[in-house]
Amino acid sequence: MTPEQIEQLMQRPDTYPHPVELPIRKIETHISTVWLTGQYAYKIKKPVDFGFLDFTNARARCHFCHQEVGLNRRFAPDLYEGVVGLDAGGLHPLPAMSASDDTECVIRMRQFDPAQVLSRRIENGQLPEQAVMDALAERLATFHQQAEPVEEGSPWGWPEKVVEPMLDNFPVLRETFSHWQERLEKLENWTRRTLSRLRGRLARRRYTGMIRACHGDLHLDNIALIDGEAIPFDGIEFNEQFRWIDPISDLAFLLMDLDARGLETHSHRLLQQWLFHTGDYESLPLLPFYAAYRAMVRAKITTLRAGQLQGEERTRTLAEVERYVALAERYAAGRTPFLIVMQGVSGSGKSHYAQRLGARLGAIIISSDRERKRLAGMAPHQRPTPEEAGWLYGGEMSRRTYDRLRRLAGELLQHGWPVILDATYLKRWHREAVMRRHDDIPTLVFSIQGDETDHAHRITRRNQAGADPSDASVEVMRQQLRHVEWPDEDEPAYIQPAGEPIDWQAVKKVLGLPIQKA
After folding, report:
1. What are the structural domains of the chain?
2. Given phi > 0 = left and psi -120 to 50 = alpha, else beta, which region is 422?
3. In this predicted model, what pLDDT tens digit does every residue of 110-133 receive, in sequence order?
C-alpha cells in the first residue's frame, strides 16, 4: 500500500472495527505516524531508510511491528495490544506474521492522553510530582537490573561498536551546518579521545554482563503519565546496536533531555535515585561520554526531521539543533570535582542535607546506610533481626562499608565528579582517612550539630515511617554523642545548625566554587 492510500484509509471512521472519536487525530515522527481514535491508537511505520533503519520493505515493517510489541511489553504490558492488518477493507486481525503488497501491519495500542507525555507536560509547566519521578527512577533501575545480558558471541557493547553510532551522527550535521565545521570537529575529536581513555572500562562493562537489552530511546517524548505512573514506551526495535547497550547509556538519554529543557536539578535527582537503587556508581565515568552522544543523536534526528518539513516550521526545527550541540559541548567540558564529607550523629538530618547539597551543587551522594545493606545483600529498607544487626553493624562490615565509600569516592573524583559521602564520620581520623587522599581538590566537612531531644524526635518519626535505610535508634544516637569529635579549627569545615537553612554562599566559599552575586 502507498502512503497516500494509508492516509486516506486511516482518516475514514469505517476503517476501524470500533467507534471512533472525531476528528481522528494524527501524530508524526520522522519514522512513524500514530492515529488517535479515542479508545485505541494505531501506529504505522513510514517507508523510510535512514541508514540506521530501513523500513522501505513492507515485510520488514511488519517484522518490526511484532518486535516492537514484544519488546515494549517489558515495561508497558498494558499499553501494547498487538499487531493488526490494514487493507482496502479496513483494519482486521492479522493471521500471519508478515504483510504483503496489499496489507500493511499496524500496531494497536491502548490510547492515552497525548498531553500526558512528559515532554508535553513540561512544555505546559506540569512536570510530574517528585514522588512520581522517584518512582520512575526505581522502575528504570529495576528494569535495567533485570534486563537480559547480551550473548557472549554478540558484537554489541565492545568499544569499537559503542563508538560507531556516535561517529555516525557527524556526517549529517556537517552536510547541513557547514558553518559548524570547527565545533563538530572538536566534538568528534573529543569522542575519539574519550573512547581511548575509557576503552578499558567499556570492555570491562562488556565482560561483566553490563550490556543489556535496554529501551534504547529513553527520552521525555517516550514516557507518559498513565494512571498516575510515569510509563516508558516506544523502545527501540529496529536496530539491535541501539538496543543492546549499557544501562547508563540508556539512562543518559533521559538525563540529557531533562538537561536540554533546563531541568538540571530534576535530572540530577533522577540519576541519584537510580544510583541508590542500582549501586552502579562504576558506570558514572561513562555518563558524560554517553550524554554527549545522546545530545548529538537528538541533534541528528532533529536535522532529519527538519528535512521532512518546509517553510517556517523547517527553520524553527533547524534552530533547535544548536541547543543540542551546545549541550554536547558542555558535557565534553567536564565538571569541577570536590569532596564533601558529612558529619553528625543519627537523627541530625545528614541524609536530608546531603540530598539538598547534591541537588544544588550537582554532586553524587554515596550513602553508608545503603552501601552497608547492599554489601550484606539486603534491601535498603529491610530491618535486620537482632542477630543480623550484630554482624551488620560490627567492625568487619563497617570496615568493608567505609572501604567501599573511599574507593568509590576516589574513582569518581578522579573522573571529575563532585562527591558527597553520607555517613556519621564521628572521629577526626576517620574523616582524614578520606580527605588526605584528595588534598589536590577542594574538600569540606559538613558538620550538623543540634539538640539531642530534636535528634531523638527525628529518629522516632523516621522509624515509625519505615521509609529510611537507617536502623539507628535513640540509644545509638546517644552513644554517638558521647564519642563524637567535632571538627577542629584547622579542618575545612562548615557548621550547620540542625534544622536550619544552608548558607550556600559560605559553603561555596569553603569549596572555592563560584559565588553568585546578590
Report:
1. 3-111 (3.30.200), 118-333 (3.90.1200.10), 339-511 (3.40.50.300)
2. beta
3. 999 999 999 999 999 999 999 999
